[in-house]
Amino acid sequence: MNQAIPSHKAVITVVGKDTVGIIARVCTYLSEHKVNVLDISQTIIEGFFNMMMIVDIEGSTQEFDEITDDLDTLGQEIGVRIRCQREEIFTRMHRI
Amino acid sequence: MLNIMEVHETNQMIEQEKLDVRTITMGISLLDCATDDLDALCERIYGKIYNHAKDLVATGKQIEREFGIPIVNKRISITPISLVAASACKKPEDFVQIAHTLDDVAHRVGVNFLGGFSALVSKSMTPAERMLIESLPQALAETERVCASVNVGSTKTGIDMNAVALMGRIVRQVSEATADTDSSGNSKLVIFCNAPDDNPFMAGAFHGVTEGDAVINVGVSGPGVVSKALDSARGKDFEFLCETIKRTAFKITRVGQLVAQEASRRLNVPFGIIDLSLAPTPAVGDSVGEILEKIGLEQVGGPGTTAALAMLNDQVKKGGIMASSYVGGLSGAFIPVSEDKNMIDAAQSGCLTIEKLEAMTCVCSVGLDMIAIPGETTPATISGIIADEAAIGMINQKTTAVRVIPVIGKGVGEMAEFGGLLGRAPIMPVNQHSCEEFVARGGRIPAPIHSFKN
After folding, report:
1. End-to-end CA separation in angstroms for chain B
2. Which of B136, B155, B158, B303 could bridge to B447 as Cys pair (CB 3.0-4.6 Å)?
3. Helices (H) and strands (E) in chain A, counts
């Protein structure tokens, strides 16, 4: 069992004020770079729009940190905070 | 599959509650560098550290970005220099030259501290160890990133009172040598009893002789996360309180374990241990003092403080221990006064005294840490403080340490400013009664009866 090797899954979170087209813009970026979306959910937490996507980056044309940077820039354009993190940070904390 | 609330909770911890991995520390053995030629020794030390650690900072930053968790410090610990340089150094100045080599390579690889300018003299000092100790005032004044430690006692060996007496004088000299920066040289000098081999936290880190060639140790932190979690435990009983702390410590440690394994894999260096300590920073909300106050104290230092800290320390260990495959180092709660906003406030108001801090060190992970005392404190009194703390460690079979800073030119009530993570500290009053005769006796305090377990 080698827990240390990361999977190809990442979690993209979008937090901010709800506006038209957030999901569309993010999904457009992901499809352009061949990132496969596995799951999407959204909710309002403490008055803020929260969206979470679980994606598979295995076939992506971009490196992990490029995706992180690009989404960060995209978030600044839309006026929301977009983070892309490897899934393990969450699964390790919440799953035994 | 993960749900959005779990993801939100983790990111909330990172963004709002200052969850971070406090340090990735690469331990590097320098035993194979030993030679009797000083220049060749310095060259070998530089080369070995550089080759092992050249990718440490970049790898740390990469992990930071991919996982979205801050890794505050990337550091190096090395074999105690007194062992490596014993045959090459003929005078204290030779050790200063090595300190410069270490400082240079620390700058080159980009780590903010390098620990292991150390001597382990828990029973007695060799000539080389004495010279290393004597070189400390100059070495700490002339270098920026080199951290030193001296182990003056252990449960198995007793306390080397000659070393304790010497360290009292050295601490004072380090203060004088760095008087222009509020005697900050002493923030890089720790005097231990029962020093662990695998402590990733500075200033007391070194790479023990029992370790392999290189190792990755990780220190996790998160007083802010524990403090936030305790908001939900207000007014509840101890069972609920303890469960809350344990759950939180578990989650924090899992993150540390993940980062440690990733760093180990990417650097191709074996994973050693996780040190699960609550290490405060001067930032608001990142305070161990605040946690103790949330447990129910009006201000840290008042009655109940020692019990609250004992409970906190134990719950942190219980929660964290299952989350990591190997736990080591100091593991518990740190109480460095200058690095903890609520401790600073309590020291200023007079609620927190050195005597209370001493009691607290009986139940927490280290000792009298980052405490500013008047510059005119005598070497004998400093030795007395060191001896008291070492005795607590020796008798209770735990690590204790002293990192006190006599601030030259300043007295009780004034503030010493160390800057950055080291913070600022109010100068605390020290008991003025003399222990001159006690310290002057020389020799050593024998190991306690319960150390004979064979």
Report:
1. 52
2. B158
3. 3, 4
pLDDT at B242 over 50: yes
Query: Number of CB pairs < 8 Å for A and B?
Result: 73
Whether A2 has a pLDDT exceeding 70, the answer reads: no
**How much of chain B exceeds pLDDT 90, in percent?**
88
pLDDT of residue A5: 59
Nearest to B8 among A45, A85, A89 (CB): A45
Output Rg (C-alpha) for chain A, integer angstroms.
Answer: 13
Query: Tell me: the pLDDT tens digits for A38-83?
Result: 999 988 888 888 999 999 999 888 899 899 999 999 999 999 999 9
* Mean pLDDT value of segment B80-91: 96
Instruction: Answer whether A93 sits within 8 Å of B251, measured CB to CB.
Output: yes
CATH topology of domain A9-94: Alpha-Beta Plaits (3.30.70)
The residue-averaged pLDDT of B289-314 equals 96
Task: Determine the Cα–Cα distance for residues B83 and B148; give it in Å rounded to an integer.
Answer: 14
With b for 16 or more beta-carbon neighbours within 10 A and e for fewer, the B25-53 pattern comes to bbbbbbeebbbeebeebbebbbebbeebb
Kindly state whether A50 is in contact with chain B, defined as any CB-CB distance less than 8 angstroms.
Answer: yes
In this structure, what token pair is assigned to residue B50? 């550089």
- The residues spanned by each domain of chain A are 9-94
> Is B358 exposed, middle or buried, given 0-12, 13-18 or 19+ CB atoms closer than 10 A?
middle
Domains and CATH numbers, chain B: 19-193 (3.20.70.20)
- H-type alpha helices, B268-371: 288-295, 305-321, 341-349, 354-361
Q: What is the pLDDT of residue B420?
A: 79
Q: Is A5 at the interface with chain B, CB within 8 A?
A: yes
Q: Compute the distance between CA of residue B293 and CA of residue B284 in angstroms, rounded to an integer.
A: 14
Contacts of B265 in chain A (CB under 8 A): 4-5
